[in-house]
């Protein structure tokens, strides 16, 4: 009997903060269920059940994605998977990238060499060949929002950029080829005389935030299309430049040209355009 009285007193003290509005505290021998909510007391009787229940919900969300998509665009080709958090919010994880190499015939004012401002504007008048090797890899994690609960979306998140462009420029022009950096004209000797310029450009930042706007119409209950426009802030790039047979109009040497070319590449922040289109399958 004494043990029973002590137990009843302890239970009354522990429950006083949530039972002050009650006139009577009743102690019974009933066993608590695995997950029980007491409407009168306003507390969860078994917090272990709450944690397990939340864990099951998270597990079900992760293992049952809302959609998968295939996409292609300025970051390359790729795919993503999306999880629906609610009617207007999806968490997405994906990858875009590509590898390409070849030789490009460059004419005067050829814009290809300035693609993404990789080497700088000063190469626009270079006449010759560019042998290139590009490797792009851009995993990303983001959120797609439907602020008006329709087909228009706003996407934001983080890229993990690992992009490298290597280029070797040569010319067969007997007079060489021209490059202009910071107002100084440089001449690259032709290939027969051993003239060349090599550049390797890669991302300095390990993370790159992005923002896009998009439109995602549905074809039927499961299939849909999408398009997105936006940009990613890549930050500054790292560059390595080597050369031979390069002379400046004021007698600048190869070493001086290499420093000027490297500084030209590294001085600006890069906002990389994002344009992509794709198809989505919803579960």
How does this structure look, described?
The chain has 283 residues and is of the alpha+beta class. The chain has two domains: 57 residues, no CATH class; 216 residues, Porin (Beta Barrel). Helix content is 15%, strand content 48%. Strand 6 and strand 7 form a beta hairpin. The relative contact order is 0.13. This is Outer membrane protein G1b. Keywords: Signal.
Low-confidence stretches: 1-28, 33-52
Which word captures the global form? Answer: elongated
Total strands: the figure is: 16
- What does the radius of gyration come to? 31 Å
> What summary fits the major beta sheet?
8 strands, antiparallel, barrel
Q: Determine the mean pLDDT.
A: 81
Q: Span from first to last CA?
A: 61 Å
Number of domains: 2
**Secondary structure: helix percent:** 10-25%
User: What portion of residues belong to β-strands?
Assistant: over 45%
Write the layout of secondary structure elements.
Blueprint: H1 2-14, E1 37-38, E2 43-44, H2 47-63, E3 67-73, E4 76-86, E5 89-106, E6 128-145, E7 152-159, E8 164-170, E9 177-181, E10 184-188, E11 196-203, E12 208-215, E13 223-235, E14 237-244, E15 246-248, H3 254-266, E16 270-282
Keywords: Signal
Protein name: Outer membrane protein G1b
Signal peptide: 1-21
Annotation keywords:
3-stranded antiparallel beta sheet; 15% helix; 2 domains; single chain; alpha+beta; Porin; 283 residues
Briefly summarize what is shown.
15% of the residues lie in helices and 48% in strands. The strands form 3 sheets. The protein has an 8-stranded antiparallel beta barrel with strand order 3-4-5-6-7-12-13-16. The chain has a 3-stranded antiparallel sheet with strand order 9-10-15, with helices on one face. It has a two-stranded antiparallel sheet with strand order 1-2. The protein has helices at 2-14, 47-63, 254-266; strands at 37-38, 43-44, 67-73, 76-86, 89-106, 128-145, 152-159, 164-170, 177-181, 184-188, 196-203, 208-215, 223-235, 237-244, 246-248, 270-282.
């Amino acid at each position: 009997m004494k043990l029973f009285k002590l137990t009843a007193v302890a239970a009354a003290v522990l429950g006083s903060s949530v039972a002050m509005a009650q006139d009577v505290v009743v102690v019974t021998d009933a066993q608590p269920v695995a997950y029980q909510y007491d409407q009168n007391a306003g507390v969860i009787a078994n917090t272990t059940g709450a944690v397990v229940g939340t864990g099951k919900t998270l597990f079900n969300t992760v293992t049952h994605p809302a959609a998968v998509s295939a996409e292609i665009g300025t970051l390359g080709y790729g795919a993503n998977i999306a999880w629906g958090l609610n009617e207007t919010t999806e968490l997405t994880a994906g990858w875009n990238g590509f590898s390409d190499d070849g030789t490009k015939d460059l004419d005067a004012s050829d814009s290809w060499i300035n693609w993404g401002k990789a080497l700088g504007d000063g190469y626009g008048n270079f006449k010759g060949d560019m042998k290139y090797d590009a490797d792009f890899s851009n995993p990303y994690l983001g959120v797609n929002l439907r602020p008006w609960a329709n087909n228009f979306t706003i996407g934001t998140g983080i890229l993990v950029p690992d992009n490298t462009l290597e280029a070797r420029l040569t010319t067969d022009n007997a007079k060489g080829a021209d490059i202009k950096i910071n107002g100084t004209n440089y001449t690259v000797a032709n290939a027969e005389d051993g003239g060349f310029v090599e550049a390797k450009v890669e991302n300095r930042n390990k993370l790159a935030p992005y923002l896009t706007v998009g439109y995602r119409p549905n074809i039927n209950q499961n299939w849909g299309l999408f398009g997105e426009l936006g940009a990613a802030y890549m930050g500054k790039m790292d560059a390595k430049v080597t050369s031979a047979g390069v002379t400046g109009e004021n007698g600048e040497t190869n070493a001086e040209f290499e420093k000027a070319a490297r500084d030209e590449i590294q001085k600006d922040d890069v906002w990389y355009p994002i344009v992509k289109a794709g198809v989505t399958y919803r579960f």
